[in-house]
Structures are given as structure tokens and as C-alpha cells.
Design a protein that fits this description.
Layout (H helix, E strand, L loop, with lengths): L5 E5 L6 H10 L3 E2 L7 H6 L16 E5 L2 E2 H21 L10 H14 L3 H17 L6 H8 L9 H5 L22 H7 L9 E4 L5 E4 L2 H11 L5
Parallel strand pairs: 2-4
Antiparallel strand pairs: 1-3, 5-6
Length: 231
């Protein structure tokens, strides 16, 4: 009837920029103008203001007309992320251990990769904020994995914890230097609105949830129970 047919692409929370580019390049109807470029080169094509390409695009389902370019969609995703970040920052809690929107994005990306569900994101944020306040390292496995890049084989080993990259939060204090993934709305809101409490540790139970602990002794017991099979 002469109507424009809308196509769609769904961007998933937790993706890296490289994975996002691969998704756009493989989606029918999107004109790939950045195929074959490095992540940095592709990001520079957008002409946007940001210190780093990682984490800058809001994960959502986007509708587009046929023959839309990847650059046009990325610019739309970037604007959506900026709006989400500024809205969340405007409604942030008073007692935070982060000072800028950029730091909120970095922390949100770590929360995204560490959490198994929306119900735990603010708890995990609370753990990280308390660790930052006390000068403790974040010790987030997701930062290890990101720093290893293609060298990560799917299983974190002891040597990986000692492998020095700028993203190794077992070795370095503070936040990673850049985001490590695309955070969704829940993780962004959690980063600027942490849940109060006294927990400083958490460990995966194996069912998508986590056990939170206030002391190292309790945490070690939880690790033995959930990670080492009760050993």
C-alpha cells in the first residue's frame, strides 16, 4: 500500500562494541559501511564525543528503514545511551563513590556483567560502592575477562588473576579505565542508586543468583559451598 516496511535489530545488554558491530553487519537491511574497520576506526566514523568506544550504545530493539547505514543506527544508539545516563545521573543518590557520568557508565558496565538478574543489581552496586569507599579493589571477574580479550578461554585461572592489564581489578584499585560492555537501564540505575547494606563480597550460587557476605570468613565459606562443591 506504499507504506514503508520497518525492520528491526535487537541489541542485547552486556555486548561489547565489537559484538555490536558484528550484529549490525550481519543484520539484513543494514548497509554496512564500517565492515573491515577496527573498533576504533568504526567509532571515529560516528563523529561523537566520547573518550572510548566501549559501552556507549544503549541496548534496545531499534526499528529502521531498509538500507539504513550502521553508522546512522550507532548514532541513534549513542544518543539513546546519553539520554539514559543523563536522566539517571539527574536522579542519583547522594552518597556515591563516583563523581561523573563517565564513571557511572563504567560502573554500570561492570554491574551488567556481574549480575544475573535485575533484583541483584543494586545489591552488587552497593558492594562496589562500599569497596571503593574503603579503598578495596573491586575484584570483579568480568574485568579480568575483558582485559584478557581473545586470550580468555572460557575459564578464569589463577594465572589470569595475576596477569597485569589495566582492567585487572584484582591488581588495580578503582574502576577500570573504560566500560567493559553495554549496560542496560537497570544496571545504569543501579550504578547511581546502590542498595544500602554491609556486604563486601558476593559469589555466584550457580543458579544465576549470588550469595552476599559482609566478612571474608563468611565469603570463603560461601566460595567453598558454591564454587568448590563443599570442599
Amino acid at each position: 500500500r506504499g507504506e514503508t516496511i520497518k525492520l528491526k535489530v535487537t541489541v542485547i545488554e552486556g555486548m561489547t562494541f565489537r559484538q555490536l558491530l558484528d550484529l549490525l553487519h550481519s543484520t539484513p537491511g543494514i548497509k554496512a559501511t564500517t565492515d573491515g574497520l577496527t573498533t576504533q576506526e568504526a567509532f571515529e566514523r560516528l563523529g561523537v564525543e566520547a573518550a572510548h568506544y566501549e559501552g556507549q550504545f544503549f541496548p534496545d530493539t531499534y526499528l529502521f528503514d531498509g538500507n539504513t547505514t550502521d553508522v546512522a543506527l550507532l548514532q541513534k544508539m549513542f544518543e539513546a545511551m546519553q539520554q539514559r545516563l543523563h536522566d539517571a545521573w539527574a536522579n542519583r543518590s547522594g552518597d556515591l563513590q563516583i563523581d561523573t557520568i563517565e564513571q557511572a557508565l563504567i560502573l554500570a558496565s561492570v554491574i551488567e556483567k556481574e549480575s544475573g538478574g535485575d533484583s541483584e543489581r543494586r545489591k552488587i552496586s552497593g558492594v562496589f560502592h562500599r569497596r571503593l569507599k574503603l579503598g578495596m579493589r573491586l575484584q570483579a571477574d568480568s574485568t579480568i575477562i575483558y582485559g584478557l580479550g581473545d586470550a580468555f578461554d572460557g575459564d578464569i585461572k589463577r594465572r589470569d588473576l595475576r596477569f597485569d592489564t589495566p582492567y585487572n581489578s584484582y591488581l588495580h584499585h578503582g574502576l577500570p579505565p573504560t566500560p567493559i560492555a553495554l549496560p542496560g537501564a537497570a544496571s545504569i540505575n543501579a550504578a547511581v542508586s546502590p542498595e544500602a547494606g554491609d556486604s563486601l563480597y558476593f559469589v555466584a550460587r550457580g543458579d544465576g543468583s549470588h550469595h552476599f557476605s559482609a566478612t571474608l570468613q563468611e565469603h570463603n565459606r560461601a566460595v567453598r559451598r558454591y564454587q568448590l562443591g563443599g570442599q
